[in-house]
Amino acid sequence: RGDTRRLAAKAIQYLRAAGRDASAKYANREAADYLNAALTIAEQDFSETSHELVTELARVRQRLGDYSGALALWERALAAATNANDLARVASIQRSIGLAHYWSGAFEEALSHYEAALDAARRAGDRPLEARVLIPKASCLQAIGRSDEARQAVVRCLELATELNDDALLARVHRALLLLYVWTGPAAKAQEHGQRAIAIAEASG
Q1: What does the alpha-carbon distance between residue 173 and residue 182 come to, in Å, rounded to a whole number?
Q2: What SS3 class is residue 123?
Q3: Contact 73/100 with Cβ under 8 angstroms?
Q4: Rounded to 5°, angle at Cα 147 from 128 and 132
């Protein structure tokens, strides 16, 4: 009955809620079905709500490994954020696009989007978001053998996390350093950062 215009807004509300609930339980296929149905209705008469739905659906498509489908949706979301001059949103979407390229093995494309994300985050003055971009950027650099640059990215992220006093972020940074030293050595450094990541995670719950 969602095709009935007077019921469309309510149909979007319930389909979106069902999609979010399914996504929270990692029932990603069901989440994609619900969110896609909500987006289809929203695009008919409610274009102002469709951008958020596009982002939510893109995230689920990415979880499913449908990187081409996710990228098409992310590009739509990026265009909307750029038109709105919403730098923080641009940075977040560019980060997500970078992740989609990274997981599909397109490392150079991923790096270009991480750089765009960092630029937007810095212009927005959003240091937590800048840190969230640096971690996957470091992983990408490590994957293509640029270990020194990867280390620089993680060290910068550690500085930001320390300044922000963000335990969750600090734990992620120490985890990133663990992975870095696992591949580059020395092993003692990997163990040190692994222990610190665990300690911070346990202390913060």
Answers
A1: 14
A2: helix
A3: no
A4: 10
Nearest-angstrom CA–CA distance, 106 and 100: 9
The answer to whether 96 and 76 are in contact (CB under 8 A) is no
Which pTM value belongs to this model? 0.86
| Predicted confidence pLDDT, tens digits, the chain (205 residues) | 556 677 888 888 999 999 999 999 989 999 999 999 999 888 876 555 678 899 999 999 999 999 999 999 999 999 999 999 999 999 999 999 999 999 999 999 999 999 999 999 999 999 999 999 999 999 999 999 998 999 999 999 999 999 999 899 999 999 999 999 998 889 999 999 999 999 999 998 8
CB 106 within 8 A of CB 115: no
- Residues 111, 133: contact at Cβ < 8 Å? no
Name the DSSP letter for residue 191.
Answer: H
Rounded to whole angstroms, the Cα distance separating 121 from 197 reads: 25
| CA gap 165, 113 in Å, rounded | 27
